[in-house]
Amino acid sequence: MALALYNKKRNFNVTPEPSGKLKSSASKLSFVIQRHKATSLHYDFRLEMEGVLKSWAVPKGPSLNPKDKRLAMMVEDHPYDYKDFSGIIPEGNYGAGIVEIWDKGFYSDLENSEKSDARKKINGRLKIRQS
Q1: How sure is the predictor about 88, in pLDDT bands with cuts at 50, 70 and 90?
Q2: How far apart are the first and last CA of the chain?
């Protein structure tokens, strides 16, 4: 189950985060970058695939220099509705802190594959661009 770990880590009676349900956009693939001031400040990079947002934590944040390398650690899948989430996760909860939307929009893979093909590439190498 894609969102089992996400749901297990959260108490939805306390946190304002959206509950985990599979859902996807009608035509374009969505992405979001969230600035997350939790235990330490980091950015969360999320790509819509297979009804969820595949997610990575980026500790050093984005850079405008294409030569800069950034570590991105894959974390649990998040529900599609998380792309619109900003707010405060209360103290004592997983990920407690401030979540802000830093950037969001749509993406496509560089080979201009069909939406369904782009979703399958996450287990391999995926090169994307904002669309």
Answers
A1: very high
A2: 30
- pLDDT digit string, tens, across residues 13-42: 999 999 988 887 777 889 999 999 999 999
AA identity, residue 62: P
Residues 13-47 as b/e (b if ≥16 CB within 10 A, e otherwise) read eebebbebeeebeeeebbbbbbbbeeeeebbbbbb
Residue 96 has pLDDT above 70, yes or no: yes
Distances (CA, A) of 125 to 87, 112, 120, 128: 32, 14, 10, 10
Contact 34, 15 (CB under 8 A): no
Residue 108 has pLDDT above 90, yes or no: no
- Mean per-residue pLDDT of the chain: 87
CA angle, corner 95, sides to 93 and 100, nearest 5?
Answer: 120
- Cα separation, 41 vs 96, whole angstroms: 11
Q: Is 95 exposed, middle or buried (0-12, 13-18, 19+ CB in 10 A)?
A: middle
**CA separation for the pair 127, 48 (Å, rounded):** 14
